[in-house]
Amino acid sequence: MNRTSGCRRVVLALFALALFATVASADQAAPPSAEKGKRLYAGNACYFCHGTLGQGLGVNGARIGPPSRAVAGFIAYVRRPTGAMPAFTDRILPDADLADIYAFLRTMPTAKAAKDIPLLGPLKGK
Ligand code: HEC
Fold first, then answer.
1. What separation in Å is there between the alpha carbon of 46 and the centre of ligand 1?
2. I want to staple 81 with a disulfide (CB 3.0 to 4.6 A). Which of 51, 65, 75, 85 is the partner?
3. Rounded to the nearest 5 degrees, what angle is found at the Cα of 120, between the Cα atoms of 116 and 124?
4. Which residues contact 123 (CB under 8 A, 6 or more apart)?
5. Is 84 a residue whose pLDDT tops 80?
6. Predicted TM-score (pTM) of this structure
7. CB-count exposure of residue 40 (10 Å: 0-12, 13-18, 19+)
8. Which of the listed residues 39, 79, 85 should we mutate to test ligand 1's pocket, taking the one with most ligand atoms within 8 A of CB?
9. Nearest-atom index, ligand 1, CA of 74
């Protein structure tokens, strides 16, 4: 083995290491999954007060699907609710899980205005 091929091997090894590090870190920062969020939403009883689709249940919980806040504000609220909602600490529900729940709630359609709901037709203009 001469000096040049040894050097090439070192370069190749460093390249492989850098590639591996990139792949490994990309795996860690997996994007939030709405699919996983759906399960977490059900598994953590959010539906109990907010409805199975985050539509809200009137007396118990607000409509949270789709969320009206950015993800940071959403997580902050769940950690320290200001009303009747129980707090969820990050030991029970890590930020990554809440980001998944957020992704799930974002798949919900926005609420229609009352004037766009035919059943409420008689109330139009009132
Ligand atoms: C025991 C009932 C209950 C449960 C369980 C519950 N919530 Fe709530 N949540 C509420 C109520 C009631 C409110 C309205 C404000 C308040 O009283 O805190 C609320 C408000 C919120 C808000 C703020 C809405 C806004 O934008 O103004 C978010 C976000 C939220 N809940 C997310 C969640 C998530 C995520 C879960 C599951 C991990 C969950 N909640 C579980 C009762 C509940």
1. 7
2. 85
3. 75
4. 114
5. yes
6. 0.79
7. buried
8. 85
9. 29
